[in-house]
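Action item from last week, closing it out:
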Amino acid sequence: MSPRTVLSPYAELFRVPGTRAFSSLGLLARVPMATAGLGSVLLVEGESGSYALAGAVAGTNAISFAIATPQWARAMDRMGQSRVLRTTALLSLVVGLSFVVAVVSDAPHWTWFLLAALTGGTAANVGSVVRTRWANALPDAGQRQTAFAFESVADEVVFVVAPPAVTFLAALIAPPVGFLAGLLVGVTGALLLSRQDRTAPLVAERVAGRPHVRARVLTPGLVAIAVTYLAVGLVFGAMDVVVVGFADAEGHDAVAGVALSAYAGGSLVAGLVYGVVRLPGSLVSRFLGTAVLFAVAAQGLHLVDSLPLLVGLAFVAGLAIAPVLVAGMSLVESRVPRAALTEGLTWTTTGLTVGVTAGSALAGTAVDAWGAETAFAVPALGAALAGLLAVAAWLVLRRAPAPVGAPVEAAVEA
């Protein structure tokens, strides 16, 4: 498949009016999703000298984010994306600055945890916001798959570029600068995105005297997908910790960044290709197939015994990431009523976020107890669990029809 064949469908997406603006601004607005945790660790450790305290504060931020984002997404579906985005952006700015002041001024530690929770709780899931706009702008299911693949690639770019930039700023200037840089970029992007009213999904008008009927979102099928994504997130969180631990044990800390970049690079390549191929079968069967592939590809991590082998196996495992994420998002988009799509997409990301937090904790314990090389069993077994949960989700989704108001799921023939 030539580069032109791969890239031309993506160029077609940006010929649709407004898509270039909301996608590029969404790229900026989601930066805090990649920097808030790391920025918190660098800030708290830099001021307190305690990694344990830093990890606990960052974990508080992540859990609060996972709990709050579906509620903000529900508000967007009811009141409009732009209005809620402005609110969350301004709240995040105020609370985030307060968090930095509390840490730098050595305020009581309970205030650090409180403000970290509020920082996570005032953030919106911008990835879901942007994907909802793509679904609103593109009538063709094949184009929506391509758009979702592009957004998965955008996620990878942010998570590859932003964390090293934050680390560099924190080390070169001062620990608070990394956290603040991510916060300010995200707030600026969110405020600018909130002004793109033409591409925002329409909100159903309320009729006076009639009670508002909320679309059902947490169906058994969506819950099954979100739980599968929790296991996928566990793999992501575990990989970060185990790769760093293994590189440190081998005496070459810098290679950890190379290995994690190879992991993300595999996903980026696969995402670009998956976005333009038209596979046979239903969205449900594609979700199952990509999840099983994700499970199988990660089993190579059991073989890691050197840094060069780690880089190669990480790239191979990364090739299965974007397809399972795109397949799941496309499936949710086909099963959730348009009036609740932002919330539906956000629940899947919530599963990922909770999984990342759990995976980091499990992997840290495994590295301490078993050593980094043996601890690669954590992401490998997490991926196997994701495959098993996808089989269970497949059984649920086969029997569960799409709710009224959801787009019709169609099989796209090759």
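Closing note: Residues 410-414 have pLDDT under 50 and may be disordered.
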